[in-house]
Every structure is written in structure tokens, then in C-alpha cells.
Amino acid sequence: MRYKRSERIVYMTQYLISNPNKLVPLTYFVEKFKQAKSSISEDVQIIKDTVVKEGLGSIETVAGASGGVRYRPQMQREEAEAVIQEVTTLLQEKDRLLPGGYLFLSDLMGNPTLLKKVGKLIATIYMEEELDAIVTIATKGISLAHAVASVLNLPVVVIRKDNKVTEGSTVSINYVSGSSRKIETMVLSKRTLKEHSKVLVVDDFMRAGGSINGVMNLMAEFKAQVKGVSVLVESKEVKQRLIEDYTSLVRLSDVDEYNQDFEVEPGNSLSKF
Amino acid sequence: MRYKRSERIVYMTQYLISNPNKLVPLTYFVEKFKQAKSSISEDVQIIKDTVVKEGLGSIETVAGASGGVRYRPQMQREEAEAVIQEVTTLLQEKDRLLPGGYLFLSDLMGNPTLLKKVGKLIATIYMEEELDAIVTIATKGISLAHAVASVLNLPVVVIRKDNKVTEGSTVSINYVSGSSRKIETMVLSKRTLKEHSKVLVVDDFMRAGGSINGVMNLMAEFKAQVKGVSVLVESKEVKQRLIEDYTSLVRLSDVDEYNQDFEVEPGNSLSKF
């Protein structure tokens, strides 16, 4: 079966786009298309030019025997602004405020189209970090963590607040919840994270940062290095935050539970674009 | 800015592949490329031919004012066999068996590359069903549900076994766990699922089917129609299963907890290809 250039380009584009941050050996395409390496390289160049021109990211070419091509997605500032605006508009809907100053976020966390965009935004910020895993806290952080991980081509590690038989042997820590001051427990399966891993922590909501601080302590037990913390929504109300270095998409402020009123403004993520 | 055909094809391919099951108006491409509709249609035809030829699915063209093009991914039987083989090999690793005949699955459920494939496999089976949402049970089903939902372009609805303030007002049911015979509770936020929705239930593991049966009862409270049930692993040991109509990727049998031994065989999913 002979392939025309246009056919090769369709196939290679879909393959690279479907496998972000994965090094694909050029020989894979050479063998599939039974075509000289020089032609395949020309195809790659065409894809590369368009990807760059359209601000979709970059196509890296790694030379040598273990080399190949890799698609590294990237979000442009304009698109990041649009995503943050979309999240803001969604959050400003009525009746989202819950007792205790929490926000109802389950619909956002269950929306794959929105999550893909938010995941790409967060992945873009941490693209240059050397990372081994994305760490999150059950339950609502999971879908967001996967959205980020799928762009960065990394595994997701889920910390639980309860211990289940299905986790196998675990390491647990106790921590003080930043807002309620209650002592809670966090549990992580030993098998899901190698010692000395470099991780990015992703979660849906941060108030005082007690949970994230718990994650930090648990990561210390695994001798892991936390290279970043990123949340969808941070609550600005908190005076003394336990975590200083983090990125957030949006920031919640002026929460008035009685009148179901609050403000949403862009977080500090935008400054990274 | 003028675009060459090859550039348009790269852009359109990446756009359609990144937005599966979404109807994209042709005018979107016409305006972006400032090109006649006839040229754009020719571009679409080239993409369509390659997508079909390579067994990647289909590109549907919907005529009329509200029409456009839609990429419907599809997995071929050969690829489905390879995915099931990959899952089987992973499950056969030592030390996966946990007390009570459960399997350690957290690493699989945290692997985005594997989940993309499994999600595409399950999505292919239910592609022709009219669906409004993917329903799953926290915690481990979430990532798999999102992998399926992202192919079908549907929202994910997460049922919890505990009640959290962040869920807002909820509906709950009690059910009897199929294996332990204990009474447990399931909770679903009222706002996450519209009444009379058509849903596909996705989970990681099924033994007697008590949890899934609980989901069925909870769906009845929402007047929802369950159009299918799909699990990654089913346990064959169970004599009386509460759920009859489901698909599974793999089947676990001959579980010998004492000797840490068990068999993994393909489930009934393959018969759908």
C-alpha cells in the first residue's frame, strides 16, 4: 500500500497529537509507510511548521539511535485568558456557594472538554519541569490530575483520606485541616509512588492549604520532591496560608454566605504565560 | 496569512482528533483559512479517506445550516485484542492479589496512556448508543470514566460512598454489598445528573455486582435509563451475579489467596468487535 504525502501527514499528525510528550522513533513511520527517512523527515517538518505557526506547541526532533519526534503541546496566553474567563463565568453561576465557603465544582470536574483545556493550561506552566508523577487528593482532584497527566505523559498518584483494602500496604500521615482545625488522615499506597520521585501536586480547591500541606508531609515520607502545586480555585479569604508557592487559575474572594455572594478573579497562573 | 493545503490538513486533523464526537461547523475552518468551502470540503475528504483507510474511525459530514464535520473514533478488533492482552499481562504481575480476592489496580487506573486505549475500547462498544452521561463510583472508577467520556464527548457523574459538603444537596440510597453482605450507602449530588438521562455505567472492578446494583437503584431515583455497564475487570468466582448485562475487558478466575495465584482471561468485550 502506497501512501501519498497528504495521507502520511494526516496519520502522523493524529498519532503525534494523540501521544503528547511521547518520543516516537522515526523508524515507526518509516516502516509503516515504507518510505525513505528523508521523506518522513520532510513530512515532520511540514507538521512542525504548522504546529509552531498556529501556536499549538512544538515538535522536537531528537537525533541518534534512540531518537525520534515528540509533540510538546503548549497553550498561548490568549487561549489561557479565554480558559480562565470560561472558568470564571461558570463559577459565577448562582447557587454555587456551599456551607463553609466551599464552591460546588463537581460539574466542572466532570466536564472532559473543560478539563482538557485546564489540563493543557496547567501542563504548559510545568512543561519544562522534570517530573515523574502528578499527585492529587481523592475525590475531586482526580479528573483534573488526569487531564494534566495526559498532556505531560505522566502517571497519576491518588492520595486518599480513607484506607481501603484495594490500596495494598500504605503509608499514612495525620495533618491538621487548615480551616476546620480538625485532625485528619491521608493515605498513599506504597506501590503507587517510587521513592525520590519528582512530583507536581494538582487539586481542585485550596483554602488555607491544610490538605496540600498534608500532601507535602506525605511526600516527605516518600522522599519525593514537590516541584510545584497547582489548583483550579483558591480562596483568597485566608489570612495565613500554609503553602506559599503555588499557581491557581482563579481566585475566590468576598465570600458572603448569607447573601450567596462572592467574587471570582483570575489567579496567578496567567503571569506564567 | 495564506495557508497551503498541507498546513490546513495538519491543523484540521489535530483539531478534529482533539475534539472527538464534537460537531465542528465547516465555517469554522472556512473563516480560519479564508478559503472557499469547496476547498475545505476537499481537505475534509482527504482526512476522511485516511481516517477510514487506517481504521481510526470515521469523519461524519452533517449537511445544512447547523451542520459540520465530526470525528468518531473507533477501535479495530486487532487493536482491542492488543489492549486486552496488555491489561492481562499487567494483571498477571506478582503480588497483585489483595485480601478478599481484590486486585491491586491503582497503578493501571493512574496510567493515562493505558486508560486512553481502554477508554477508546469501551467507547467504541457504546458509540452507537444515545447517551447523556458516563456514571461511575468513586474513587478508582473516575479516571476510567473520564477516559471513556473524553472519547464520547460526555460529562462524567461521580457517585460517592460518603456524603461531603462539597456535593451540595444529594440523593442517597442504601444497598447490600454483594460479597460482604454489609449495608452501604451511595450518594449522588442532585445537580450533577438531570432526570431522565441516558447513562453508561463504568467501573474498574466487579465482583457480585452489588455496587453496580446500587448504582442501578440510584439511577432509578433519578429516573435515568442505564444503557450499558462496562468494567475493566470482572471476577468470575461469583455464582449468582446481580447484574446480567455488562461488558468486561478481562475476567479473573481461580483465585487462590493462599498461594497468591489466579488466572486472567479476556472478558466478553472482544465479542463486540
Instruction: Find the count of extended strands of chain A (DSSP E, 2+ residues).
Output: 12
- Largest interface, counted with CB-CB under 8 A? A-B, 62 and 62 residues
Helix content of chain A: 25-40%
How many domains of chain A? The number is 2
Task: Indicate the structural class of chain A.
Answer: alpha/beta
Which stretches of chain A of 5+ consecutive residues score pLDDT under 50?
A: none
Q: Give the quaternary arrangement of the chains.
A: homodimer
CATH architecture term of the largest domain in chain A:
3-Layer(aba) Sandwich
The total count of helices of chain A amounts to 8
State mean pLDDT of chain A (0 to 100 scale): 93
Strand content of chain A: 25-35%
Helix/strand order of chain A: HHHEEHEEHHEHEEEEHEEE
* Biggest sheet statistics of chain A: 6 strands, mixed
Shape type of chain A: globular
Give the class-level CATH name of the largest domain in chain A. Answer: Alpha Beta
Q: Report the end-to-end length of chain A measured between terminal Cα atoms.
A: 45 Å
* Cα gyration radius of chain A (Å): 21 Å
Please list the strands of the largest sheet of chain A in the order they lie side by side. 6-5-9-10-11-12
CATH topology of the largest domain in chain A: Rossmann fold
Topology, pairings included?
Two copies of one chain form a homodimer.
Chain A: H1 5-18, H2 26-33, H3 37-53, E1 57-62, E2 68-73, H4 77-91, E3 97-98, E4 102-103, H5 106-109, H6 112-126, E5 133-137, H7 141-152, E6 156-159, E7 170-176, E8 183-189, E9 198-206, H8 210-221, E10 225-235, E11 247-256, E12 261-266
Parallel strand pairs in A: 5-6, 5-9, 9-10, 10-11
Antiparallel strand pairs in A: 1-2, 3-4, 7-8, 11-12
